[in-house]
Amino acid sequence: MRDVYVIGIGMTHFGELWDTSFRDLFVEAALEAFGDANMDRLDSMYIGCMSGGLFVGQEHVGALLADYLGRVPIPTTRVETACASGGAAVRQAYLEVASGMSEVVLAGGVEKMTDSADVTAALATAADQEYEVYQGVTFPGLYALMARAHMHTYHTTREQLALVAVKNHHHGAMNSKTQFPFEITVEQVLASSMVADPLRLLDCSPVSDGAAAVILASEEVAKQAKGHPLVRVVASTQATGAMALHTRTDLTRLDTVEHSAQVAYQQAGITPDQVDVTEVHDCFTIAEICVMEALGYAEPGRAAALVEAGETRLGGSMPINTSGGLKSKGHPVGASGVAQVVELTIQLRREGGTRQVEGARIGLAQNMGGTGASSTVHILEGQA
Amino acid sequence: MRDVYVIGIGMTHFGELWDTSFRDLFVEAALEAFGDANMDRLDSMYIGCMSGGLFVGQEHVGALLADYLGRVPIPTTRVETACASGGAAVRQAYLEVASGMSEVVLAGGVEKMTDSADVTAALATAADQEYEVYQGVTFPGLYALMARAHMHTYHTTREQLALVAVKNHHHGAMNSKTQFPFEITVEQVLASSMVADPLRLLDCSPVSDGAAAVILASEEVAKQAKGHPLVRVVASTQATGAMALHTRTDLTRLDTVEHSAQVAYQQAGITPDQVDVTEVHDCFTIAEICVMEALGYAEPGRAAALVEAGETRLGGSMPINTSGGLKSKGHPVGASGVAQVVELTIQLRREGGTRQVEGARIGLAQNMGGTGASSTVHILEGQA
Q1: B89 is in which domain, residue-wise?
Q2: Interface predicted TM-score (ipTM)
Q3: Is B331 considered catalytic here?
Q4: CB of A38 within 8 Å of any CB in chain B?
Q5: Quick check: is B384 in a domain?
Q6: Is residue A77 located within the same domain as residue A183?
Q7: DSSP three-state, residue B218
Q8: Which of A128, A152, A163, B332 is deepest in the core (most CB within 10 A)?
């Protein structure tokens, strides 16, 4: 297994993109990534997409996108691990370059969710159809159960949850590609519509259209791609866990995130405190809290206090979701995991502008499927 | 890249399996594969599934199946290339073992199509949604256009198409796991209901439930797995091509099959005439004809004559679809590409019983998505 580098990044604006089709979203992100890499070579592609079938009536996603990008006959495979599909695409691309099979592989992610589908029902297919969805549960409901359990066990407060959203909107307001590029207050979160008690509208990531793409390459090729400091992928992991919430021993813990993170730290030869900048899967505010604890950034039950103390805010000791996260940036589900790697690359190249984390050298991206039955972790190292 | 071996195979009966759920189908096939391998080790899984969302309301397929197989936390990723999803799963598993990342990887495929979905509409999502499906076209209609073009250009006859189905049912009648294990006649094909002129019901593969699994391993592990002659994967390729039929220059040719086959022959260091036993994607009778030509088994326009001469029948010079093919065995779309590798492994181990190809040493499996916008080819070599 050889070294793998990120040589190109691209993403569309995230939001309600009425004028751009599913295929065009991907093409736009991919072309931006080629422009960023300043080269044109491509051996293979992986596309993260959760449900082309349910959202836009389109499966056979890989061939479609290879065709419309003008890249046939290269092998193109769509991968799906629910909302972690983007992370899985990055991992497959990493594996193909690391193996020596290919020199340059694109990992893309795309979802078009606002066209016409029953989005809540489509997203619910990421839960256990026979044991959870059949009972009428939806994702806000499932994460609300996790939030209640966390509040009960650790006395996490409603305000602390709100602070996650406030912080991510603060970051997102500095990112020109976010769906909701504005600040919000704790009071606004607490006054927003109830979705599933205790989660309110402003605790929830939005329904979004969007695409992202990263181009991974071998060291030899990466050194020819001029224009940006090199960013190396030093860990790429994935784990699965209990699908249905009722089969878990502790609703507040994310075993798959713990496992994928532990293996990633081993691969990278680092400890959690060495990470300078982090993107996590904040599909709901409670998710960011639970993920922080699973990543080892805080002892169980201690993450919310760190959020409250401003440690996860830009300028704090462990800035999280400088992109705006899923909450402010938007969450086109198949694209989110790839967009996380886009943000880390920006940070590790030191190209983050007003939202740059000073001296960022190591970044970690954590992407999650369902209520955590899938998790991917990528650790990147900048050479800026 | 190191050598990769097939050490275990399993598959369910294919058919209308009312008593077995989506997840149980996969578990049954996977457990059979572990029993066949006579070992229990597993590092990772890939699952071919075309549309869990549209067929059974279940995405997040990888985590679900890892959970219900009792194999968390191993990484499990669902891959999708429409009806070539099974072939893509085998290719990803091959890559992961060949790379040295993992020692033992399971490639599974599963689809449950008969539960409740609008199957024709769900399958149509493998075509171009904006340019083909929007016009009302379905897969029988698309393949009918290809058949008409082949008949027009090469004077392929209606009877020659029927002979493909007759031959595959002849083989399938010898396979205890086929959906339709009985012989049919040319007269029956020609008298069956018209589906899309010139294709009749008995030209079409059926709607099926089913799952298949193969376990791939490194040489070191393979040599510990006693009980069966070794089978080595000597080529694993994939190609993409024009998605919509109207964008192709020649409706009778399958560019992706040609490309994936040519690269596979190079990888394996063989020529087409060295293949002893072949499984191809006969979703419609015309598909088998076009694939034969794309594989280089016949010059363009000459395949049908070989079928008529009995060359592709068991006992002929190039037996094709000894399993019964998609036509007789059934076509649970995500499983079909994996089931092809199951059949080749049986043949190359010389465990085919009454349908054994004498002296089979090299086998080729070709799996196709849509009207051919994706194709995978695997070449296996037996050491029996």
Answers
A1: 4-118+207-222
A2: 0.96
A3: yes
A4: no
A5: no
A6: no
A7: strand
A8: B332
